[in-house]
Amino acid sequence: MKFEVTILGSSSATPIYNRNPTAQALNINERLYLIDCGEGTQQQMLKFDVKASRIDHIFISHLHGDHYLGLVGLLSSLHLNGRSKPLKLFGPAPLKEIIDLQFKYSDTTLNYEIEFYPTDPTQPAVILDTNEITVETIPLDHRIACTGFFFKQKKTLRKLIKEKVEALAIPVNYFSLLKRGQNYVAPDGTVYQNDELTIDSSVPKSYAYCSDTLYNQNYFAQIANADLLYHESTFLHNMLDRALQTHHTTAWQAADVALQTGAHQLLIGHFSARYKTLNELLDEARSVFPNTELAIEGKTFTVGA
Amino acid sequence: MKFEVTILGSSSATPIYNRNPTAQALNINERLYLIDCGEGTQQQMLKFDVKASRIDHIFISHLHGDHYLGLVGLLSSLHLNGRSKPLKLFGPAPLKEIIDLQFKYSDTTLNYEIEFYPTDPTQPAVILDTNEITVETIPLDHRIACTGFFFKQKKTLRKLIKEKVEALAIPVNYFSLLKRGQNYVAPDGTVYQNDELTIDSSVPKSYAYCSDTLYNQNYFAQIANADLLYHESTFLHNMLDRALQTHHTTAWQAADVALQTGAHQLLIGHFSARYKTLNELLDEARSVFPNTELAIEGKTFTVGA
Predict the structure, then answer these.
(1) Can you give the pLDDT at residue A203?
(2) Residue B135: in which H helix or E strand, if any?
(3) At residue A17, does pLDDT exceed 90?
(4) What is the DSSP letter of B53?
């Protein structure tokens, strides 16, 4: 089952050096989820061929402009491009007021419904639970209310071993039970163990998105063993004072989060405009956690690769 | 005296084909003025080397998102990049409420002052009058309150003809009067006509910006004889019905505005996303008004060239 993240923006507060403010598109089994939506996100989606019309869920971490200023433009474009199906939007409560005010003064009535789900920044909560995934908020420690998002795949059904099932002439109405792990009792009373007849088709993967935050152990337990951890890494560790002051994280700290929480792979992003090139940030993180990559524009990462 | 306009965005409602929503930077004698500020304008300024820090005046025509959704990001970046000098902002009254709400929830207190001047969409008004220019609002006919902006250079002082002034040993304290057109009376009573001693150094130029609007003769008299007219041209004339319905203008109509109002040169822009290429729009406008150019991203036009 596909589980990929495409980076649309890697910049912190101000866009520079062709780095755009934060946005990421998740593709989970051909469903698209958008996380954060900095200014220019819809242009980035055009550039990297992420089909905006296919997004049904948008998650906004917090109300600093570099994480949501592209949202009203995107919502408006979806409307103008004929969207009719509802869109689910998760974010801080005042986001609704901000959107409503702008559509009020542009005299816009959307052709589709926005189902808005305000997030609670004080405690983790499952905010979406589908057949395929759950999404939990991760309370982060930033200057204003901010949550990360933890995407977890559910275990999929087991797959039938076609030859075995056919050889035993198992009736079709048993298939659903077999896929769920039941054994098969033949008409002659013989019991066939489930693992003779099916295989476990996948191991569910998880993606933890943590931006923006102070390095803070409060969220470590929740994100334990993520297959892929995205963690903001605004500064080099020689700027720790600045990171503490602005409630951000250094590359060294982001890597330490990955190490402490048992992540399989780390992506770092949300780079300060002071860094024209990113090698030093990557090197610093890799010195602590080698399996680290830069979350830069246009790159797609497979969760659990 | 320099008087140039650089196009930062040429797209109507939705960005597409590398066309960005509307924004233009005017350079008048090395002072920068920004007109409209669609999403991604700050990224476009970086791309085309328009120094945002040098902008002291921003003009917003109306509150459709493709004309202002880049503003809060730009204001925020100016703040983060250390701006301290005030910024003058002209636009529809609710714009202030929209900005204030977003800075409230991002807990941002700007380091510089925004002096906000609400525009009146019902009648023309001079909204800025400096030593060098005046700016008038142009009431337009759109679905929501919308004004264009008419930038007019003032006549500059006459230039002294150095050899004549030196030959007559005219005292320095006369220079200012001569530059303003006075004659010179020598100590022996001889009267020297001003035009023997000075030359008219420049002819003041004008730039009319008209976006978005229905073709409507109400604004024709006001923009008469513009050296450069920018007029929206959202559709080809075979889409006239759609133009009427959405309060926009066709390429044929934009050219007719230029013709009727005696413009020297026409720029057309604000192109619908339905046009992948723009040749047909240009050809249609030129069939009526030959001195027409496409207002496309990164192009700079000299007013009165």
Answers:
(1) 86
(2) strand B133-139
(3) no
(4) G
- Active-site entry in B66, B120, B141, B256: B66
Report yes or no: A158 and A200 within 8 Å, Cβ to Cβ. Answer: yes
3-state secondary structure of B140: coil
Mutation target vs A (from B10, B39, B64, B81; most A CBs, 10 A cutoff) = B39
Chain B residues inside the 8 Å CB shell of A13: 76-77, 80
Q: Which residues of B touch A (CB under 8 A)?
A: 13-16, 20-21, 39-40, 42-43, 46, 63-66, 69-70, 72-73, 76-77, 80-81, 92, 94, 97-98, 101-102, 105-107, 143-144, 273
Q: pLDDT (tens digit, 9 = 90+) per residue, B223-252?
A: 999 999 999 999 999 999 999 999 999 999
DSSP secondary structure letter of residue B35: E
* Domains of chain B as residue ranges with CATH: 3-156+202-302 (3.60.15.10), 159-195 (no CATH)
CA distance linking residue A189 with residue A184, whole number of Å: 9
At A224 the three-state DSSP class reads coil
A270 among annotated binding-site residues: yes
Whether the complex's predicted ipTM is more than 0.85 is answered with yes
Cβ-count burial B17-45 (b if 16+ within 10 Å, e if not): eebbbbbbbbbbeeebbbbbbbbbbbbbb
> Do the Cβ atoms of A159 and A201 come closer than 8 Å?
yes
Provide DSSP, A65-124.
GGGTTTHHHHHHHHHHTT--S-EEEEEETHHHHHHHHHHHHTT---SS-EEEEEE-TTS-
Q: Contact, A262 vs A224, CB < 8 A?
A: yes
Contact by Cβ (8 Å): A171, A191: no
CB contact under 8 A, A43 and B66: no
pLDDT per position as a tens digit, A80-99: 999 999 999 999 999 999 99
Mean pLDDT of A254-263: 98
Sign of CA dihedral A157, A160, A165, A166: positive
Q: Which residue of chain A has the CA closest to B40?
A: A40
Three-state secondary structure call for residue A184: strand
